Automatic annotation (TrEMBL), chains A, B:
This is Photosystem reaction center subunit H. It comes from the Bacteria. The lineage of its organism: Bacteria, Pseudomonadati, Pseudomonadota, Alphaproteobacteria, Hyphomicrobiales. Residues 6-78 form the PRC-barrel domain. It comes from Aureimonas ureilytica. Signal peptide: none annotated.
Amino acid sequence: MQVGADNIEASRVNGTRVYNTDGDNLGHIYDVVIGKRDGRVKYAIMSFGGFLGIGEDYHPIPWDVLKYDERQGGYVVGITIDQLKNAPRYASDTSPDWVDPAYGKRIDDYYGVSY
Amino acid sequence: MQVGADNIEASRVNGTRVYNTDGDNLGHIYDVVIGKRDGRVKYAIMSFGGFLGIGEDYHPIPWDVLKYDERQGGYVVGITIDQLKNAPRYASDTSPDWVDPAYGKRIDDYYGVSY
């Protein structure tokens, strides 16, 4: 199995900074969503604190869209600001209906990934 | 992809109760360890608060050893108390060296799983 520096407690992923490919600090990871049975990390929930002028909204982003960059010590997302502006998001005082398959599909479709 | 009730925020996994196959409540999940790059949940860190008479130690257990039981609303581990007593664990005020591949291998070997 893969062990070593690759592994980290999920609680320590939370708070990790997120950059775009230009090196701008967009925000940080607020939480991750995992599959209880298949043990896969499905989404990172990202908090873009005001950067987009949208307050404390959370963006769920497919895990596969994130690349960990050892040098920056954070994740890099290869998506544009415009993509983020129109992406699925929810207010920090609410919680999405993860039980609704259509919600997950909407996220995956938006970012063009499938599992 | 799998969506729906299967998905949950990692922060909400923490605190989920853990039972053995006899239905005894052993403790709860303290955290999960994920692979930063491969996006797999590797270990659940379990807190057996005093149940084994060993104080607040944490046991990292391979994720695949846990089965989620919808009826009980918690995880069931198919391991005996004796297995747990001798299993790798660490004091709650310390942190294992996840960077050391031998540590992960020791856990996997103990529970007889491989990735």
